Prior knowledge:
By secondary structure, the protein is α/β, with parallel strands linked by helices. It has one domain: 3-Layer(aba) Sandwich (Rossmann fold). Strands 4-5-1-6-7-8 form a six-stranded mixed β-sheet, with helices on both faces. It has a two-stranded antiparallel ribbon with strand order 2-3. The radius of gyration is 17 Å and the shape is globular.
Amino acid sequence: xxxxxxxxxxxxxxxxxxxxxxxxxxxxxxxxxxxxxxxxxxxxxxxxxxxxxxxxxxxxxxxxxxxxxxxxxxxxxxxxxxxxxxxxxxxxxxxxxxxxxxxxxxxxxxxxxxxxxxxxxxxxxxxxxxxxxxxxxxxxxxxxxxxxxxxxxxxxxxxxxxxxxxxxxxxxxxxxxxxxxxxxxxxxxxxxxxxxxxxxxxxxxxxxxxxxxxxxxxxxxxx
Length: 223
């Protein structure tokens, strides 16, 4: 399913594809941005907000977290992203040698930032779409679902751009399947919604595939 946005002009080869990363706190947005840079740039940088990937234990689930042997408990030390974090990498369009678009990710943490609402339109201006990251292990919590719906309402009524939902942390046994998350949020009722996909930013599972599929659905085919 693709959403046609008549307000978005076609890209030239020098244009930047701006995608927003949004979601509740501690959903894995910063880690996802860093994972995408690793996949496409071949490097993974540390950042001030979220979890510091350079200090992660390869056997842990989550960032700076300790997990029991059955992956049933997660205790994390979380540092929220201070305002905005940026992730940039380039994608070369299939079948060409000269035509290259720079894909810019803008991660903006909405949770706890209500006082900056009058500045939100500055950050989402020019965005072509939104990737919403949700913690699949928390989506049985009514308060978490309420916050997720609040963010989706902002996308639908203010940003008005197509979006997908990444059901993150699927490597944990307590994760809710993506199809169940779709049902709990009644996502089929939302006109700008394109789909829900299971991912693990820790292992990188489905991360590249989901991004390329999303870009293709909004008119930028890098597959």
